[in-house]
Specification:
This protein has a two-stranded parallel sheet with strand order 1-4. A two-stranded antiparallel ribbon has the order 2-3. The protein is globular and about 40 Å long. It has seven helices and four strands. The longest helix has 10 residues, at 39-48. With 136 residues, the chain is an alpha+beta fold.
Length: 136
């Protein structure tokens, strides 16, 4: 079902990598894994590197994002073991600038338990501890 309704085909199924590479209009292009034209990937990298800070918030009780660590650029390997962001190919090869942002101290990761997917945006603890200080 998620292949039919996922925003920009942003789902990456570790068991159907070829479908992801063939049909993804966003994530596979950004990760330089697309079988399609990759012209926009360089522009996306340039724009991504313009970020002053990248705030990554997620938690084990999200209930929708799977694995929840993908909210912090972690993802499954072929055996469904979660591989953290700094061990991902897109980070190691700095495909879209993730490692560059990290090296300059611009990535800030927050793991918050007890927050479900539909309540992140209205959770005052998340806002106070993870978001508010970055809004200035």
């Amino acid at each position: 079902m998620s292949r039919k309704i996922s925003t920009s085909f942003s789902i990456q199924d570790p068991h159907n990598n070829m479908l992801y590479r063939k049909y993804s209009d966003y994530l596979a292009v950004l990760n330089n894994e697309s079988l399609k034209v990759k012209a926009q990937a360089q522009a996306w990298r340039k724009n991504f590197l313009r970020l002053k800070n990248l705030i990554l918030i997620g938690g084990p009780d999200d209930g929708v994002i799977t694995p929840w660590q993908s909210s912090q650029f972690g993802f499954y390997d072929e055996k469904e073991k979660v591989v953290p962001m700094r061990e991902q190919k897109v980070y190691i090869k700095d495909i879209f600038g993730l490692r560059t942002l990290d090296k300059r101290g611009a990535i800030h990761t927050y793991t918050v338990s007890g927050v479900e997917h539909t309540t992140w945006h209205k959770n005052l603890t998340v806002f106070d501890n993870c978001i508010e200080k970055w809004l200035t």
